[in-house]
Amino acid sequence: MTPPQRQRRLPKEQPFPPPAQSGKQKNPERLFVVADPDGGERDADIDLVTLIVARADPPPSATPEQSALLRLCTTPLSVVELSAYLNLPFSMMTVVLTDMLAAGLVTARAPIVRQAVADRSILEAVMHGLQRL
């Protein structure tokens, strides 16, 4: 008994996709849509390591970005972390956060900076403790 012969399948011609009609494309939102449309005052001093903490729950009028920021900021997070989580550039984060600061939804504070030089007495105590080991 002979096995059945396999026949080669030729690929079918795929028709070209129809041209995209305007208004039906799914383009990502432009960055100016995320920001405040009236272009409010932008004078907050926000840098990459500024810590942001939520002060309130998202109001009904909050944008999706603002709601996501308020949910993320239950504990202090830096602006660069928020930018990475929301996949927004730093410049847009400063615009959105400045609007939220003006509305009183979040607070911003500088990170806690440790002393540049450690106290000499602490270093000597650590050194003596290590020598006793």
Q: If you had to describe this structure to a student in words, what would you say it looks like?
A:
The mean pLDDT is 78. With 133 residues, this protein is mainly α. It is flat, with a radius of gyration of 28 Å. It starts with 30 loop residues before the first helix and ends with a helix. It contains 5 helices and 3 strands. Strands 2-1-3 form a 3-stranded antiparallel β-sheet.
Secondary-structure topology with pairs:
Elements: H1 31-34, E1 51-54, H2 64-72, E2 77-78, H3 79-86, H4 90-103, E3 106-109, H5 120-132
Antiparallel strand pairs: 1-2, 1-3
Instruction: Find the structural class using helix and strand composition.
Output: mainly alpha
What amount of the residues lies in strands? Answer: 5-15%
Rg estimate, integer Å: 28 Å
What topology, given as strand order, has the largest sheet? 2-1-3
Number of helices, where a helix is a run of at least 4 consecutive DSSP H or I residues: 5
Residue share in helix: 25-40%
Tell me the overall shape.
flat
> Biggest β-sheet, characterized?
3 strands, antiparallel
User: Order of SSEs, N→C?
Assistant: HEHEHHEH
- N-end to C-end Cα span: 86 Å
